[in-house]
Amino acid sequence: MLVDLKLKEFSERLAAATPTPGGGSASALAASLAASLGAMVCDLTVGKPKYEAARADLEKAREALQGLRKDLLALVDRDAEAYDQVAAAMKLPKGTPEEKAKRQEVLGRASLFATEIPLKTAESSLAVLKELKGVAEKGNASALSDVGVAAHLAHTGLVGAALNVRTNLPGIPDRERAGRIVERTSSLESEAAGLLEELRGAVSRRMSG
After folding, report:
1. Is 16 helix (H, G, I), strand (E, B) or coil?
2. Is the peptide bond before 21 cis (omega within 30 degrees of 0)?
């Protein structure tokens, strides 16, 4: 599994001349790192007398971020698996009408799966951004830069995942369903852009005193 590799090994795999792991896995990893940083800031805040009023909110955020971190790590591998299914479908024979039909059917299913996985990454990345908003507003002031880094990582994860959604859309035979996926993806991107600006503003204001 990719997530069981050492950091150096994963970087080398990513740099290799192979299609997986690729941008989808990197996007999921970026968002998982964002969740990790957010959870860290919660841990650096909970239990400190100065932030006692925020304890309940940050404990809840920490739990949510830890769950999202695990989900996103799983998506690192799922994204590579999804691409491998598309690649396998592309190699199916197409010499007869029956083979062509079978290949198209399998490719359609694989393309849908390869679209749904990065869509899940995008949704989870947005969930991380939402949790980070409260952390930026109430978390330990000494760790605000970490919240800012987390916000950008989560946003990068979402934008990268959206790119991977769109690259697999042409292979989906159900065009109505593909259209709904496009609308959902655009909505996620729009909401994420707004949240990133809110987070940047909250971090900047608190860092400025």
Report:
1. coil
2. yes
Domain that holds residue 111: 23-207
Q: In the chain, how long is the greatest CA-to-CA distance? A: 73
Whether 196 is covered by a domain: the verdict is: yes
Q: Is this model's pTM higher than 0.90 or not? A: yes
Residue 13 covered by a domain: no
Q: What is the pLDDT of residues 72-124, one digit of tens each?
A: 999 999 999 999 999 999 999 999 999 999 999 999 999 999 999 999 999 99
Reduced to 3 DSSP states, what percent helix, strand and coil does the chain have, rounded to the nearest 5?
85, 0, 15
Residue 178 lies in a domain: yes
Count the domains in the chain: 1
Residue 49 resides in a domain? yes
Q: Which CATH number is 101's domain given?
A: 1.20.120.680
CA torsion, points 3, 1, 21, 24, in degrees to nearest 10?
-60
Residues 6+ apart with CB under 8 A from 64: 127, 131
